[in-house]
Amino acid sequence: MEDERKDGAYGTPQKYDPTFKGPIYHRGCTDVICCVFLLLAIVGYVAVGIIAWTHGDPRKVIYPTDSRGEFCGQKGTKNANKPYLFYFNIVKCASPLVLLEFQCPTPQICVEKCPDRYLTYLNAHRSQDFEYYKQFCVPGFQNNKGVAEVLRNGDCPAVLIPSKPLARRCFPAIHAHKGVLMVGNETTYEDGHGSRKNITELVEGAKKANGVLEARQLAMRIFEDYTVSWYWIVIGLVIAMVMSLLFIVLLRFLAGIMVWVMIIMVILVLGYGIFHCYMEYMRLRGEAGSDISLVDLGFQTDFRVYLHLRQTWMAFMIILSILEAIIILLLIFLRKRILIAIALIKEASRAVGYVMCSLLYPLVTFLLLCLCIAYWASTAVFLSTSNEAVYKIFDDGTCQFAGKTCNPETFASSNESRLCPDAHCQFAFYGGESGYHRALLGLQIFNAFMFFWLANFVLALGQVTLAGAFASYYWALHKPDDLPAFPLFSAFGRALRYHTGSLAFGSLILAIVQIIRVMLEYLDQRLKAAENRFAKFLMTCLKCCFWCLEKFIRFLNRNAYIMIAIYGTNFCTSARNAFFLLMRNIIRDPGLLFLHPPYTDCAGHGPAPQLLLGPYTVEDLERNDGSAERPYFMSPNLKRLLNKTNKKLAES
User: Fold this and answer.
1) pLDDT (0 to 100) of residue 217
2) Residues 6 or more apart in contact with residue 326 via CB below 8 angstroms
3) Are residues 419 and 455 in the same domain?
4) Distances (CA, A) of 495 to 9, 491, 567, 577
5) Residues 285, 418 within the same domain
6) Per UniProt, what is the membrane topology (predicted)?
């Protein structure tokens, strides 16, 4: 019978091929240039890691260090009895660069204890409090300079604020009194230069510094937990694997019962929620203040206040009732689709049962992702701790050395000090003067970009491997007799041997979009304090557009990887063929879209039902017609689901 289907706007429909039995074994390398680029990028990534490990000091992440890079409280040093780190101006810790450099751009010294009182240098330098104030100045400070010179040189902080130690760092002792932030008994503070500022500036600075500190502590706690309880983690993974296997086996026989039980449980939980809201609504009847409306109450930072209002429970009850009604209506009108979904789950569990190694492959993906995360995190830490305190020569006159770097320990006896007696060596910033230090921000961006690229490559490798394995199952006419030996390992070998470049290409596109989204998030944080509404609107639009673009690329990549696994074509050809295949059949029968949902989970993993019933089933319907010459490859259950049959030779 001649195939009457013709070319259309979405390409030529797949034609019957009697030799087609699933994944093509005779194939060539694809997207070789992208493979070369990936290898070169990995070599460069390793080089960046080596350079970062050479210059960085991870102890700076764990232990506090002063502006000279000396550790606070370290035995055998002059700071042995000074375990706490004191920030001259913690407000500067609100800078977004703190997250990149793990340092606040303000002088820091080691002290014996944190300040416990409020003092300004203007008030203390000529009073009996100076001896107390002096311990928070730079080591060796003598009160032989004017106030303006001391503050300009950064010899002493302009103001001391009552602080408490947290992880050996001094943070302002900020507390809330009746919803108002205060330091001591004040809601404002004098900055030491004659101006009064709001406590919220201190809060923002302490929040950023504390955020970095919490990130450090979290990383250390995670590392310590892994070293102490790694065997429990392994036991948990083994138990999870056994439970997953048992769950998949049960799905084959009890899928209908399990699905209906979960649906009924959701309905019962929502019903109980409605009952509970009604009982709370009735209990609050007559209580003082419970009849205040939400509009009159306004916004409250303590959300527990809303639970004492009858209107709150009425709103909860209405919302839950609407959800309950929607679910019941969906069950009434989509009951046939639910039956189809149950059958799909059974078929998926049957496929996994024939390809049992697919249960173990996620461990390979997990281990590779852990390797990517560990390398990225360690490189980021070493890069962040590569910064050094930079001191420069400052002079009010015409000193020829003004602006040049200096060493504060040797500056007094240096040639610059003799030629410019009024000059002083003052802390300028954290960073460095070398090319490496100037490139730190770019290296951090490259580190993040390579992490996204490699992580997406690992996920793509998993998708192609599983797609190839399940394609071998699907295109076996007599299951499981025609199923090849070790389909998962064969698919994994084909993906690495022939299609590393295609996987690198697809993951590169996704990584570019993701790094752009990260930069937009960074810019959004910078613009939060701005009052430019147009800039905020534009930023929101860009973030939304790139979010949608990332989801579309994930969808396109997943379908391209399935075509790569089957036909061995390059990435662009595979993406085009997959998209055209879907569009041709949606136009012909929109109901087929149900067999190919547009998106899976956030990690991009394609579950067994999609890998089986997506492009495979659609292409099977396009290639074959159920005749003896062109039988359907789908399983009997799928044929019953789609009302398809294979005719015997005598019938045709």
Assistant:
1) 52
2) none
3) no
4) 31, 6, 11, 19
5) no
6) Multi-pass membrane protein
In this structure, of 15-19, 58-62, 392-396, 645-649, the range with the lowest mean pLDDT score is 15-19
Strand partners, 392: 405, 426
Domain end: 180, 206, 232, which one? 206
Angle at 337 between CA 332 and CA 341, to 5 degrees: 130
User: How many Å separate Cα 41 from the centre of its chain?
Assistant: 22
Q: Domain end: 155, 171, 206, which one?
A: 206
Domain-embedded: residue 196:
yes
d(CA 63, CA 588): 66
The H or E element that residue 109 is part of is strand 108-111
Assess contact for 602 and 554: CB atoms under 8 A: no
518 and 567 share a domain?
A: yes
Using an 8 Å Cβ cutoff, are 489 and 419 in contact? no
Q: Are residues 163 and 121 in the same domain?
A: yes
C-beta separation of 507 from 558 below 8 A: no
| Overall pTM > 0.85 | no
CA pair distance 222, 231, nearest whole angstrom: 15
Q: Is 110 exposed, middle or buried (0-12, 13-18, 19+ CB in 10 A)?
A: buried
Give the span between the Cα atoms of 569 and 572, in whole angstroms.
Answer: 8
Closest by Cα among 156, 152, 166, 108 to 132? 156
Contact between 102 and 60 under an 8 Å Cβ cutoff? The reply is yes
pLDDT beyond 50 at 607: no
Give me 600's structure tokens.
């899976």
Q: Which amino acid is at 341?
A: A
For residue 61, CA distances in Å to 56, 57, 379 come to 10, 8, 13
Nearest-angstrom CA–CA distance, 252 and 263: 18
Quote the CA–CA distance of 287 and 13 in Å, as a whole number: 71
What mean pLDDT, rounded, does the chain reach?
78
Residue 78 falls inside a structural domain: no
Mean pLDDT of 460-464: 93
The pair phi, psi for residue 613, each rounded to 5°, is -105, 5
484 and 624 together in one domain: yes
Residue 39 pLDDT level (bands cut at 50, 70, 90): very high
Kindly state whether residues 463 and 354 are assigned to the same domain: no
Residue 261 shares a structural domain with residue 371: no
Query: Tokens 């409306």 map to which residue?
Result: 293
Q: Establish if 423 belongs to a structural domain.
A: yes
* Phi-psi map region of 31: left, alpha, beta (phi>0 left; psi -120 to 50 alpha): left
Cα separation of the two ends of the chain: 11
Tally of domains in the chain: 4
CA–CA distance, 204 with 210 (Å, rounded to integer)? 10
13-36 pLDDT, tens per residue? 666 666 667 788 888 899 999 999
Domain range for 411: 388-431
Judging by DSSP bridges, how do beta strands 174-177 and 169-172 pair with one another?
Answer: unpaired
Cβ-based neighbours of 171, under 8 Å, separated by 6 or more:
90, 163, 164, 165, 206, 209, 210
Q: Is residue 198 domain-shared with residue 224, that is, in the same domain?
A: no
